Structures
1.
Amino acid sequence: MKIKNFDVSFQSINGEKVIDFKYFIILISGFSCNLDLSKELRNVSNKNFFKIGKGKNLKTYINADGILEFISKSFRIDNIEKENILQQLKDEGLINKNIILSTSRKELCFYSNLFDFFSIFNLPIKKQVCIGSYIVDFIIKDFVIEYDENNHSNYNKEKEKIRENYIKSQGYKIIRVSDINSNSYNLGIIAKEVL
């Protein structure tokens, strides 16, 4: 796998293909000093990484799903780089999911407004969450919030219906809002359902 012109080789540990997480972070961020891996690991589910060794010999390894989860939640990696990494994971045969990884400025602004509004009610918001093989924009309680840009025009309707049915089968209700509306209007729609 190549990230920023580096060659990354996955290792097989306990029958799973993994990569040294610290090395991966250095490759995508370009820095190694003052690297707090525990902070970076907050964006990865426990099932997608593991640690081997002790003390100075402690190494953290992350699998392909963990990389996917990490990059989907990262705001420091641009969308082109995210698509590159996703394609490389597909080329390596480590994932076969058709996922759109996108975090636009509009979506970031919306997230900021959403977070500020619901923090008043002490309701945590999870962003870019994996549900099965799908990534959803936001989760509040048992509601999935999908922030649709460009009026959802770039989605395959049949695949989206399958995706929605799966998400609902996992116990979530879906609320769709559009960037065509103001953030205030969208917050009103969400608040009406969630509160």
2.
Amino acid sequence: MVEYLIKRCVQWPELKGEWDGPVWGKVEEIPISIFKLASSDHRPRVRAKLLYDDDRIYGMFDVQDNYVRSVRTNFQDMVCLDSCVEFFVLPKEDAGYINFEFNCGGTLLAAYIADWKPDERGNWKTRVDLTSEDAERIEIYHSMPKVVEPEIQEPTNWRIEFSIPFAIFEKYVGPLGDIPGQEWRANLYKCADETSHPHWASWSPCEDARFHYPEYFGLIRFEAP
């Protein structure tokens, strides 16, 4: 199982997309480099970083891409069809996980999946979409415009940076307690379903299964004092 240590913030991230800046420059990278067999021949270089403090978890994605597209602009639109990065996280083994999906224009889809075993129609048995009030508490930086259409077909570097309050997790999975020293399960992804070169990549290997199976998630540890 892949593992990652989330360091505690020494300085608050300003959400300016500064991958090599004073806050993020020395943070260990997470490679998102395991591509599904169904992907096209496009293999963008995708990296992420995570940090935390008493109140929030922070993350940044850096994508060296081609064939970049973003047309979904409303909260809870199917952003995975655009050039998209995703953070799926399971805080407790006996509760569900939350998927946070961001297209390159900064549009968010997020849901709490309490039971990920599909029903006879292939749908989740228990899914609760995060509310617009939840979304207002999630801060997102995006380096690309909200809409990228037509598709950009030359090399393009884009970034997403986010800040998510732990209180949002607690709303859906219950009290978390002291975060330092905890171990959660998570995976990070890159996808682009409806671009000219669709592809699907992950940090933790998930074979050719759907991204939504936590048994394939890796381990993230919060640095203890």
3.
Amino acid sequence: MAPEMRIGFLVLAAFLWTACAGKPDVVEPSAGGTTGGTTGATHRIFVTGHGWHTGIVVPAAAINRELPFLRQRFGDVPFYEFGWGDRGFYEAEDITLGLALQAVFWPTETVMHVVAVPGSPRRYFPNSDVVALSITGRQFAALRRFIANGFYRDDDAKTVAFRKGLYGDAQFYKGVGTYYLLNTCNTWTAKGLRSAGVDISPAFKLTAGSVLDSLPNR
């Protein structure tokens, strides 16, 4: 192999590795345990696409076991939508070019965005793409652990709440990891789906469309 080709392959390999390496990390289904159901049980989750951003909707009752502070904050609701992204860009009321460039090209602080979904996700998000997926109990446990790992915890193991969220009954929390060009909100969604056993690679999942087009029910 010519030296220039070898260098090209090394650069490509480094690019792909970086695209998947940012925290939070994928949780392998075998590491998720089976809490909340047997390995043969089927659980329904949803992937939402809101134009530039994607999220994951899961039944609230099961994930409340991992994240009890959510029930204290939102009460009894059937679903939560989770999203992860750049704090400045995500929380901003007015999106500017400077915020967009900073989010893309400089590693920045992240947040978890949690929305209480009071009923059918498709009815609650009528103007968004909503794709349903069925996963096993083991896969669901890994997905719950991946989502829980996205929340920053202080020295007392407590999460840090920021301002209210973007729509509905929602809340921002301090997140884990940094946001940059190859570790975006859509990369996070792809990692979550990978944790849930979906055949999707987080590499190059930089847009909502690239995530949604990879789903089996799309």
